[in-house]
Amino acid sequence: MADNENDFILTTENLVKEFKGFVAVNGVNLKVRRGDIHALIGPNGAGKTTCFNLLTKFLEPTRGRIRYNGIDITGEKPAQIARRGVVRSFQISAVFPHLSVLENVRIALQRSLGTSFHFWRSGKSLDALNGRAMELLGEVGLQDYADMVTVEMPYGRKRALEIATTLALEPELMLLDEPTQGMGHEDVDRVMQLIRKVAANRTILMVEHNMKVVSGISDRITVLARGAVLAEGSYAEVAHDAQVIEAYMGSERGEGELAGAEAH
Hints:
The chain is 37% helix and 23% strand. By secondary structure, it is an alpha/beta fold. It folds into 2 domains: 1-85 and 171-264, P-loop containing nucleotide triphosphate hydrolases (Rossmann fold, 3-Layer(aba) Sandwich); 93-170, no CATH class. It has a 6-stranded mixed beta sheet with strand order 7-8-9-4-10-11, sandwiched between helices. Strands 1, 2, 3, 5 and 6 form a 5-stranded antiparallel beta sheet that branches.
């Protein structure tokens, strides 16, 4: 059955970004299916982060179009795109390390209400947000950490808090940039489960290096190399693509890395 354009929440058409003659993103055609966990992978320098910056309008494309829910958003500003429901995790990460976990989520909720700069208001005026904040902490398994000062939290739990603050803006499409970077095995497993859980009612596009994560939770994968799409498909399809193995790690090491992740 042919794909319907309505099946895709985000699409790009020949997306290009040049920096003084260097082509960082080269003719990328991306289709992110509604409800999927879609991974963007590739070797260092492949253009993944630049692509994310184009999608969230932190960079302007040199050429090409970006469509979200069928609407051309190529000319929109980052705040406009966030209001449409496209939210990148670092945009609203827990940047207040000396506030409690609950206070960080409340501030994210304030932003969703458009009252983010009313810091002169009484703290009690934010108490109405406590119920929703605790719900969000429950979603990411942090309800028992509500009163902890954020700086004292383990690294993996901080990433869970970052996801909670992202959820406060009620995203329809979440962009996660290296969600498990720097984590030990236990934290990686916890965050994998968390991403799978929060993906139940939304679409997720993530850049991720950890092949165990990519193979474990991705519905579809796009492989970038030198700024261009090298392959796309399920994990099994891209893991056995000779071009992907060669580009990703060098043929022998790449095959071992990709096959090892598949075995997990």
